[in-house]
Amino acid sequence: MIWNKLVTIWRIPELRKRIFYTLGLMAIYRVGSFVPVPGVDPGALRQFMDELSGTAGTALDFVNMFTGGALTRVAIFATGIMPYISASIILQLLTVVVPELERLSKEGEMGRRKITQYTRYLTGVLAAIQATGMAFWLTSDQAQTRGGRELVPEAGFWFYVLAVLTLTTGTVFLMWVGEQISERGMATASRCSSSRPSS
Hints:
By secondary structure, this protein is mainly alpha-helical. The protein contains 8 helices and no strands. 23% of the residues are buried.
């Protein structure tokens, strides 16, 4: 039964295209979750995370789950998609209390597009704030191994700039990936399946 459904799905060209498109974007995400932020010592980071897993393992694993492992690797996607989720929630709450946003939400497609644009801008701001906090934490006294090995051997102005830009760009890219999957990937695949004439 399941095999027959899979074969049927595979025979629909548009659906097959959407599946490959979604898998391609997911592969890019997985690769990005292994690329470290420039300036971070990978060896010291592995040692630090091994030491940290004994004390705060459960909480760290829970947060790390939302980034696909990118957080513990301090990868370019370490901030994940959480700033976008937070921005969406904030905009939804503001729609109730801000008359201008409430009016936009009632204007149909054009209003929704405007709110989506505001959500993107707010995502960038929240991602930059989160990235700045992470960059300062990486250079703090707490971010050292028990042997005194620093996660960022050469901390300085350019490390902060590069780290914030990298992490913020990573979040914005993930937001774009999510939107592409919604528009051209598996999120709309059900329409293709349902619109196919029955044989």
